[in-house]
Amino acid sequence: MFQYETVENFLSGKTILVTGASDGIGKCCAETFASYGANVVLLGKNQKKLEAIYDKIEILSPGKAIIQPVDFNIATEGDYQNLSNSLAEQFQKLDGLILNAGILGARSPIEFYPSDLWHETIQVNVNSAFSLSKALLPNLKQSPDARIIFTSSSVGREGRAHWGAYAVSKFAIEGLMQTLAEELEKTSTIRVNSLNPGGTRTSMRKSAFPAEDPKTQPLPKELMPVYLYLLSEESKPIHGKAIDVREFEPANYLPK
Ligand code: NDP
């Protein structure tokens, strides 16, 4: 796994919004970024879980976190606009948007896939990423060096039987990433990439592979060097790339 040594407080002065900050990989991102000095906006569905993460960050990195409960399944364009306005009032700029929240949907062949769960999975995994990036682009444009990291999966790069809406949602995320990256390439300093975390020890992984020994998968904290690198100045030339955390090596993504 990639290792990245950086200086204490290297995210100081930056504000980073993490979706799905109440659990798993997003929770670890939020805690890690705050520990390096960033202000973190914790977005998740479950207010109680967000409050628990907030309390933990408050002890280790006081004054660094705010919570923003949003249910992507029911949020409206107006809610996203209000979030953008509220962030603009609290912070001069947004330096990072980690679009990490997701649901697994059903594990089922397409023929029997429950339509309601199909729509919910596309709503939570894709439509929210569109709405949130659209609403927050003005906030990100205030930063001299912002990053958007979309979260993909190996089934978003090669389809796999029985992964249904989840796989399709991750293919769509790759398309959204590529489209936005090309739009922003020459008009802005925002850098946009997608990240496949690879199998990681979280509750989503447990639901997807109930028979697996969880200890065979890395903990979220083992992925953090890649996230930190992608938030660093060094990663500035990396744009529009579909990145795999497990095999991450900057030279493979930096322009030759
Ligand atoms: P978890 O299930 O641990 O966490 C998912 C997060 O998404 C939670 O914070 C949850 O919030 C949030 N979320 C779910 N539904 C909604 C909603 N309707 N509105 C707002 N937030 C919501 O997942 P992981 O940490 O494992 O996964 C994170 C990302 O990584 C996902 O995009 C996943 O697809 C991807 N990924 C994960 C892999 C793995 O092995 N873990 C492998 C490949 C990709 P709450 O807790 O409040 O419900």
Q: Would you tell me the structural class of the helices and strands?
A: alpha/beta
Strand order of the largest sheet: 3-2-1-4-5-6-7
Roughly what percent helix? 25-40%
Bound molecules: NADPH dihydro-nicotinamide-adenine-dinucleotide phosphate
Report on the architecture of this protein.
- The protein has about 260 residues and is of the alpha/beta class.
- The protein has a single domain, classed as NAD(P)-binding Rossmann-like Domain (Rossmann fold), CATH 3.40.50.
- It has seven helices and seven strands, in the order E-H-E-H-E-H-E-H-E-H-E-H-H-E.
- Strands 3-2-1-4-5-6-7 form a seven-stranded parallel sheet, with helices on both faces.
- Helix 4 packs parallel to helix 5.
- The radius of gyration is 17 Å and the shape is globular.
- It starts with 14 loop residues before the first strand and ends in a 12-residue tail after the last strand.
- The site of NADPH dihydro-nicotinamide-adenine-dinucleotide phosphate (NDP) has 30 residues, from helix 1 and helix 6.
